[in-house]
Amino acid sequence: MVALVRITQGIILVIKLVKEYAKGKHLVYQTSYRNGRYFTYPVLTKFHNLNSKHKPKHCWFRCSLSAKIRNMAEGVVTVVAEGIKPLGEFIIQQAKFLSGVSNQIELAQNELHLIRGFLKDADMKQQDEELVRNCVELIRDAAYDLEDVIESFYLKVASRRRGGTVKRIVLKRFACIFNEGLNRYKIGSEIEHIMAKLSHLRSNLQSYNIRQISGGESVASAFKRQQDRRRTYAHEVESHIVVGLEEITGTLVKKLVREGKRHLVVSIWGMGGSGKTTLAKQVFRQNEIKRHFDCFAWVCISQQWEGKVVLEEILIKLTSPSTEKRKEISKMKMDEIAEEVCSIQREKRCLVVLDDIWTQEAWNSIKAGFPINEKTESRILLTTRKKEVALLASKNDHLHQPQQLDDNQCWELFEKIAICGSDKTDLEIDAEKRKLGEEMLKHCSGLPLAITVLAGLLSRRETVDEWKTVLGNVNVCIMRGTNVPEREKTSQECGVSGVLALSYDDLPSHLKLCFLYLAQYPEDHEIQVTRLTQLWIAEGFIPSTSEIHGSIELMEDVSYGCLTELVQRSMVQVGIYGFSGKVKSCRLHDLMRDLCLQKAKEENFLGIVNFSVGPVSNATVIGKVRRLALYLDENVKYEFSSENGRDGHIRSLLYFAPKEFKQKWNKRIIRSVFNDFKLLRVLKIENISRGFELPKTIGNLVHLRFLSLKGSAYRALPSSVSNLVLLQTLDLRGGFISRDTKIRNVFWNMKQLRHLYLPHFIYGYSVSGKLSFARLCNLQTLANFSIRKCDLNDLVQLSNLKKLSILPTGSGKLEKLKDMLISRNRTYKHLRSLSLEVIGSGDGDIIPSDIVLRCPHLYKLRLWGEMTALPKELPNLAKLTLIKTKLKGDQIEILEKLPNLRVLYLGWCSFESETMVFSQGGFPHLEFLTLHYLRDLKEWRVEKEAMPCLQRLHIVECYGLQALADGLQEITTLKELTIDEMPSRFCSRVGEGGEDFYKIKHVPSRIITNIQRDYEMEEAAVTLIRN
């Protein structure tokens, strides 16, 4: 009876509250404690009357913590303190339904700001004092816990409010009054517990004589300073700064090119950081080397080597096989691959560089792939830290050890980096400053890596006093290095490790986080910069907005700026530059990776689990790490669950699988990922080639910002993925997508989505209805948009796109898109990269040039399919790819007038003309030109002053071309010419002594490779015509 009375009273109260709510009053909750129990009940107040006296103890602020989080203690605390901001628009929109305002968030901010002041001093002392270090670690964990608690609560509240009318939402709201009130009390208790812990830890810091340092710069200020510096220093991403290698480079080139007719192995050995790889690269780039050898392969051999994988990579690089041939190679046995590699080296002059071999076992495992002591002009250039490895592979007279730089060379290298960005008035370094520099260089022991890192650090210091401070810090770091417990270090090693450690200590907190994040990558891993910057953003290392010179800079641009600063400091090495001069890939030097791993371990920043060394135990991950990188092995048959990760607090789970990882994942392994780690923000499961099912529980990972299944054979995308409303990057480019793969309409509510990569097979997946993207207003990248499976109306509305690729289509679909853009007067003013493909042969299956004209600021354009004419007004276009466009010869006149075109690829059947003319003054800024599969081309004319900036020219499989253009001899800027898979009669004309050699003899690098017999070319031409 009592229960019935209470239920009745509750119903009456709900009805009253609904009526009052309709009058403009707002619902808050009051929690009180009576008779040993907590009670939560609703209280009404006007919307405009939420002042301090109406704030109940356990009412909640309407905004949540942002995703900005740092792992260095100061970085973590800074971001949590400053980052109590909206998680996203969808929470802001629902904030009017949240109850009241709490003082607790403000109190948390104040406490964290106070602690941040102490952490500045603690960070300087924690290296030497274990008590301080432990305290700092506890503060970092507490700050993370604080964010996890608040974000989890708000995501839970927000999920209850999505969808429905206001009336429906309000009724649903009151239906769960008591349950939600209990949740609020529980969350409130957790917050209070964490705040008490933080307050206690702050008191501990004070008891350790840690003083408070005030006046530190904010996160926004730190990033603004970084952006200003990016514009101040001219050597933003300087590369190929080399000193003292001229003589030894020449010696090695002579050995490789002129040393007899038998197979030869030349070894470079020396300690880490001595410039072995730099020397090998210098040799590899020499024009004499490029002209002499037919085929090239450069492979890095890490400490975790696998002989078959190494030989596969060499074979692929020597032969450049088709996709089908690569599949055949992957199925071959190791001895078969070794024989193939050997055979190629016998037939052609090949140069294979084996970079960084660590052990004799590694050499022995792959040497069967080389024609040792046989009659051939193929060569191996090997680098290693171990002299015994070099001796095993080479004879004594073919061993070379890079010498340490002398004092003058040290200063020359140092000055090129440290002083390069200064004004002219700063170039005359006074005696005191030079003296300081030379004193610091003594600790570098003549090793190039240490010198460049030190110089990169000092390039950001302008005054003598700043240089003195750095000198003092170097000495401290070296003294710290001499106390390393693992083993005794030589004075040389202490000096180098001290300089490297100082480069890390000098980083601002946000760059420390970015640097430590690189610890996840395996040794010698080529890191894709676009993916790395997306991960940094997902982790919260980059602020959501950054204002520079009065305009808002995108997070992606700020993130790239962090990468370039690490490159400037010589802490990260550039792998590949893009045509625009931006860094496309990067890597860590082995010594810098060692430092990165050491610091990541010390800071509990990231744990690495290597399945190849055996089953994982709870002891594998020590401490409360928030990120895990898992190196998979073909024999892995066990899962990694939250028990290994200490109660599932892991934020990032990154799987690294070997190429074409074929191990089948059982359901237990999959469940352990999606059931046990509920706080995940980053999940990367790539290159799992055996099919697996994604469970529905993936929808419980509501904190996810980044999800990549690239290259993996998932069978369906569950509808529960629509719950992942915080996703910023979603990559679904599966490796083995089939018609049975189901991609459901799950994207419509992901308003935070910035980068979406759909499967890239046109017929390769099924959908129910059309995929919807209309609400994705933050979307910048949309890859593999299928007009068959997606709504064109949505595409027209995505006005913030920067990169768009549309899958092959037909039946006039692109014509319909053009009409929609014109009728609605829409332009893609932010679009920088566009790819369009058309299949079919009907009248409507032509790429309309008007679509391109609706993208006025295009920088990169790829067109695959028939066109009647090229668009004329593309003033910003820098890179253009044309394939199967079937254009007439007069369209060249349009191309050569594009004012900023730098890269041009004329591919398969792009032009249907026997004669192609580059007229006088045409292509004023073209730097890279490729002519590929132009089957009709017979004559190519280049008039005077055409292509005055051309640097690289590639001619591939243009079977009908009779001769090189005469005008090439006038292009003095041409540095590299590659003739690939051309008929022997053509290659004879352009080779030394040939009829056309005079046209290209001034070109430093001339590569003629894969020469085809003339009758083979005739057969290939017939095949092309049939196709």
Give the quaternary arrangement of the chains.
Answer: single chain
> What's the alpha carbon Rg, rounded to whole Å?
32 Å
**Percent of residues in beta strands:** 15-25%
What is the overall number of helices? 33
**Structural class assignment:** alpha/beta
- Domain module tally: 5
Determine the mean pLDDT.
Answer: 78
Low-confidence stretches: 1-71, 79-101, 163-171, 230-238, 482-487
Number of strands: 33
User: Helicity range of the residues?
Assistant: 25-40%
Biggest sheet overview: 17 strands, parallel
How far is it from the N-terminal to the C-terminal residue, by CA? 86 Å
What overall form do the CA principal axes indicate? globular
Question: What's this, in brief?
Answer:
The chain is α/β, with parallel strands linked by helices and 1027 residues long.
Blueprint (SSEs and pairs):
Layout: H1 2-22, E1 25-34, E2 37-46, H2 73-82, H3 89-94, H4 103-125, H5 130-161, H6 166-175, H7 177-207, H8 219-232, H9 246-258, E3 264-269, H10 276-285, H11 287-292, E4 295-300, H12 307-319, H13 323-331, H14 334-347, E5 350-357, H15 360-366, E6 379-384, H16 387-393, E7 399-400, H17 407-418, H18 431-441, H19 448-458, H20 464-481, H21 491-505, H22 509-516, E8 527-528, H23 529-539, E9 546-548, E10 551-553, H24 555-568, E11 573-577, E12 583-587, H25 590-602, E13 607-610, E14 627-631, E15 652-656, H26 667-676, E16 682-685, E17 706-708, E18 716-717, E19 729-731, E20 742-743, E21 755-757, E22 781-785, H27 792-797, E23 803-809, H28 813-823, E24 833-838, H29 849-853, E25 860-864, E26 879-883, H30 892-895, E27 903-906, E28 915-918, E29 928-932, E30 939-942, E31 952-956, E32 976-980, H31 984-990, H32 997-1000, E33 1005-1009, H33 1014-1026
Helix pairs in contact: 2-4, 2-5, 4-5, 4-7, 5-7, 8-24, 9-10, 12-14, 17-19, 18-20, 19-21, 20-21, 23-24
Domain Disease resistance protein winged helix: 521-596
GO molecular function, one term: ADP binding
Protein name: Putative P-loop containing nucleoside triphosphate hydrolase, leucine-rich repeat domain, L
